[in-house]
């Protein structure tokens, strides 16, 4: 079972890299430089996370940019940060790998695609949906969607999702279109769905703007004789770009000329 054993202050050189636990994004050198400057000025304010596989044997789990920043500081300033603050965790290798993936995903700039590998890894390690959801602090439905759509997601869709060009809802629509296609027509369904995404939707003109309504109402000399339902219909038309046909007709009948001036 994955647990935090303790917080400790250990020699920096005793924190090693494990071949099965890695940073899942390329190191951002600008981020490393920023951390190096901040840590040198203010100290290591957030402990790095290490796995104590055996007593006194530590492997890095979380904080790869901070770890590299301290390595850079030490290269330029011998004797600095001989010891570092760490959060020591204990667990089986699959739990440590899952924690590593979670820590990589749980950043302020994280995207849903950052969770794909973590969720799929845990599922492949025979974690059930509820356990994954609890571990990642997500809903079971959110996990189930990833397990359903992420493994077979086309690389183009994933790149668009990673770049923020489409939403998760749009990505799922594409995946659903592919899954619903007749056998042998999946590629055509994918291409058609991607084409729809790339074609900007035409914006429906607003039926009546507040400014136009105010101008036309001020210009009218004769009073309207309307009911509360008529006013409610007018508010619905003013509120959005679309309204039910019967609502539009009620406004036309109750407020002659207001929509068509």
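^ structure tokens above, recovered residues below v
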């Amino acid at each position: 079972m994955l647990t935090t054993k303790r917080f400790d202050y250990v020699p920096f050189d005793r924190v090693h890299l494990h071949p099965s636990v890695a940073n899942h994004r390329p190191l951002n050198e600008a981020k490393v430089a920023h951390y190096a400057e901040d840590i040198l000025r203010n100290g290591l304010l957030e402990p790095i996370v290490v796995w104590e596989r055996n007593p006194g044997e530590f492997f890095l789990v979380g904080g790869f940019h901070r770890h590299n920043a301290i390595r850079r500081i030490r290269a330029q300033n011998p004797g600095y940060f001989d010891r570092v603050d760490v959060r020591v965790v204990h667990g089986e290798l699959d739990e440590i790998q899952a924690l590593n993936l979670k820590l990589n995903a749980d950043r302020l700039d994280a995207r849903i695609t950052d969770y794909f590998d973590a969720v799929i890894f845990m599922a492949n390690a025979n974690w059930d949906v509820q356990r994954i959801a609890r571990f990642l602090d997500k809903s079971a439905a959110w996990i189930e969607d990833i397990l359903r759509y992420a493994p077979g997601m086309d690389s183009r869709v994933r790149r668009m999702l990673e770049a923020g060009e489409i939403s998760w809802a749009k990505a799922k629509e594409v995946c659903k279109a592919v899954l619903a296609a007749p056998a042998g027509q999946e590629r055509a369904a994918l291409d058609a769905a991607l084409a729809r995404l790339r074609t900007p939707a035409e914006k429906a003109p607003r039926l009546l703007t507040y400014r136009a309504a105010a101008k036309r109402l001020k210009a009218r000399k004769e009073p309207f004789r309307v009911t509360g339902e008529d006013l409610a219909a007018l508010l619905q038309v003013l509120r959005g770009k679309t309204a039910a046909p019967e609502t539009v007709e009620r406004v036309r009948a109750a407020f002659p000329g207001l929509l068509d001036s």
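Residues 156-201 form one domain.
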